[in-house]
Amino acid sequence: MKNSSSLLDKGFKAKAERKSVELRKSLGLTENCPLPAELLAEYLNITIYPLTSASQNIDCLKENISAFTLSNEAGKRVLVHNDFHTKGRQQSDIMHELAHIICEHKVKDYGVPLPSNMRGYDGKNEEEAIYLGGCLQIPREALVRCVKNKMTNETIADYFLASKEMVTYRINITGVNKQIFASQKWKK
Amino acid sequence: MTSHLNTELLSSMLKAKRGNSGLRAAAEEIGNVSAATLSRIEQGNVPDVETFITICKWLGASTEDFIIENLDEKRDVSTQDIVIAHLRADKTLTKEAATTLVDVINHFYKLPTP
User: For the whole model, what pTM was predicted?
Assistant: First the structure.
């Protein structure tokens, strides 16, 4: 899991953490609650489809596509995700796409002719969606409580419907271990 | 009208300009491209937009030089009308994956939602 957050604007991380708590509150959940990605998608009025529900043979896509979103012919927002991935990974794939939508990331106009079968990649937008997606899955303060209560990474992952990799990423990126170690050191 | 990337032309021009330089040296010269990505593009895979534009600049070519119009287009909806808000995928896709993805996108575009 990427740890690079050098493209993020100052204040983005704090804003993302607050957004995770705010959306839980809007859904009647406390900041310690797991947030199923499907529930958030429904709240945001986005329809989710698994990739395998496509009529095409999608074997060649299962290794290299995570998810995509589009507005369909009726103008409704649709999110398609790779259901070959593990359950935890599927949750993070969907949350990542929802994070792009919450951040209101726009499709970039490159100003040059491009083939139809090619897609854009905006580094800063990707970093923002990675960080916010992680916050949406595992809020920082909830993670602090879990680590203080000596929950294993596996237990934390199961509780937040996340992968173990996501738990490790959130522990690293939030500096939760350092915070707890420092507060325990001062208490001695 | 939809179009696709002329991967053969892109690959051959890349190899020709790279000449005897290694992939790593060429990737460093191009900038913002890894040697691994460059190798996959030389093998005919489809890069993402930013990688493609960067390589075109290095080649001194226009992006248009590598676009092939799909003249036998059977789809009644141009994929260019469908705005893919976000796509999380590998840096390069095989031609088969890139083509299948366009078909899958069309499928979900037209699918009536409940």
Answer: 0.84
